[in-house]
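Handout for the seminar on molecular recognition.
Each group receives one record of this type.
Step one: identify the two inputs.
Step two: read the structure output and locate the region that could contact nicotinamide-adenine-dinucleotide.
Step three: write two sentences on what you found, then compare them with the reference statements printed after the record.
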Amino acid sequence: MTRSLTILGATGSIGRSTADVVLAQPDQFRVEAVVGGKDAKALAAMAKRLGARFAALADEAGHHDLRSELAGSGIESGAGDAALIEAVDRESDIVLAAISGTAGLRPTHAALKPGRRIALANKESLVCAGKAFMADARRIGAQIMPVDSEHNALDQALAAGHGKDVEKAIITATGGPFRTWSRERIAAASPAEAAAHPVWSMGSKINIDSSTLMNKGLELIEAHHLFDIDADHLDVLVHPEAIVHGLVQWSDGALTAGLALPDMKVPIANALRHQQRLAMDLPRLDLAAIGRLSFEMADEERFPCLAAAKAALKAGGSMPTVLNAANEIAVAAFMAGKIRFYDIYKIVDGVCSSFVARRLDAPATVAEALAIDGEARRAASAALNETVIASA
Ligand code: NAD
Ligand code: MG
């Protein structure tokens, strides 16, 4: 049976990989709508490539360009918040949510509909508002399937047993571009060096998060919400080859692991499948050719953002929301060349510390989460100005 699909963040790295999966499975999917941020030309090209019925651009200023690019194609278009809502309100069986950053929260949340599957790549939605998001998904009756490779692997591994028998759920990290660098060398790293991921080709924000290991910290928080596993039963293992993505350690000492070549099309295809697995014509993992797989502990001295994220998960309440917001501000400043690498951690840690005494509960609604997110962003911007002045 053909399933209808809407893609949020269709022009991004995950969006493009999703398009490849969908086009390789013409009998399985029909694309209802595609959503993009600012690039009208890229969105129009993607809408045509996928034969979508509707294209929505977040940036209203790009509507004219989008319309002229789509002229004669029969594809409807819109721009701005209302168009994003129209995209998710249109009938579709599956919404693949791959907008980057907390900007994805509102449209992804609005996409929760009874009986619909959300193939979720946008981890920031869960880090910012996980409790509210998951509760609303349950109440509405929407199913959440993880696209993030580690969580997709965990989802498959967890199917081998019962939740009560899980001793540990472990996600792997490649270690990023600075895995073998000294702290001194990392301290002087440029944005281009931080963005040069050794294995995955991804969007710019997640690339920087991978270099600080904040990405793995965000993923621990994501795993907590997706699988309802607490901080003490979650762990990170550095595995540079990125072949084993997630492992479940059971109460009898057995482990179940999810392995695949590092290609996001594999977890995307898995998250989109319905009942049966899709038959994907992708290279197969050849373990004999790889020969050896290596594992090591994450070094939280050189990568303190991982420790900060673990602390936020453990503290609970609104700490993950605060951490995520401060990180987005700090990462944007680092990418713009305004601060140095370890200033990302300093800003995140400083903002988190300033919220500790308030002991705010985990946001019960998305609106509450966004209010705390806004407050933490303002605190991070203030901390950023001080950092920039201090280093000038
Ligand atoms: P990307 O930067 O390549 O793409 C982001 C997409 O979101 C683009 O289509 C962009 O136009 C759109 N967008 C940005 N701001 C928007 C807004 N305000 N409204 C609507 N659309 C907007 O990012 P990516 O690497 O594809 O990552 C997307 C999400 O998936 C992130 O949350 C990331 O953490 C997650 N993820 C990515 C990977 C990966 O391999 N790239 C792996 C796991 C998880
Ligand atoms: Mg991941």
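Reference statements: The mean pLDDT is 97. Residues 161 and 356 are 37 Å apart (CA to CA).
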